[in-house]
Design brief:
Elements: H1 2-18, E1 22-27, H2 32-47, E2 52-56, H3 80-89, E3 93-96, H4 100-104, E4 115-117, H5 120-127, E5 132-136
Parallel strand pairs: 1-2, 1-5, 2-3, 3-4
Helix pairs in contact: 2-3
Length: 137
């Protein structure tokens, strides 16, 4: 009886945790494949009608810089920036971390249209909401 109760509770917990209301993707890797992987997964989740919020920090903030040259990733031969632009067009919220602009010498006007600087208090409040799943790359 005790084992079946524990097993049942485990299944119920797993079932509840499967459904996410929103996805938060944090990318700070300088690696093009890691950046691309995080963005591709974000696209896939957005296609399943789950809201997506992306935070780009450190070297990954460069993805959001307009005109930044990046390597094309196989098999589709697209850059991380092209994937990011498709996310923006599909309605994802995309931000660079609050430290990115002041520490890189870049300006808000250097960012792709639709990308905004993050406000740490807003990000923290978002992360604390029930139903938010997180991925980090």
């Amino acid at each position: 009886m005790k084992k079946s109760l524990v097993f049942g509770l485990s299944l119920a917990t797993a079932a509840l945790s499967v459904q996410a209301d929103e996805l938060f993707v944090s990318i700070n890797s300088a690696g093009a494949m890691a950046q691309g992987a995080g963005l591709v997964l974000a696209v896939q989740v957005l296609e399943q009608k789950v809201p997506v919020r992306v935070l780009l920090c450190d070297a990954a903030g460069d993805i959001a810089v307009a005109g930044k040259e990046m390597p094309a990733l196989k098999p589709r031969n697209v850059t991380a920036q092209q994937i990011l632009q498709s996310l923006l067009q599909a309605g994802a919220k995309v931000e660079v971390c609050a430290l990115y602009l002041p520490n890189t010498g870049r300006q808000y006007s250097d960012l792709l249209p639709g990308v905004t600087p993050a406000k740490p208090a807003d990000v923290a409040a978002h992360l604390m909401k029930p139903g938010v799943r997180t991925l980090s790359f």
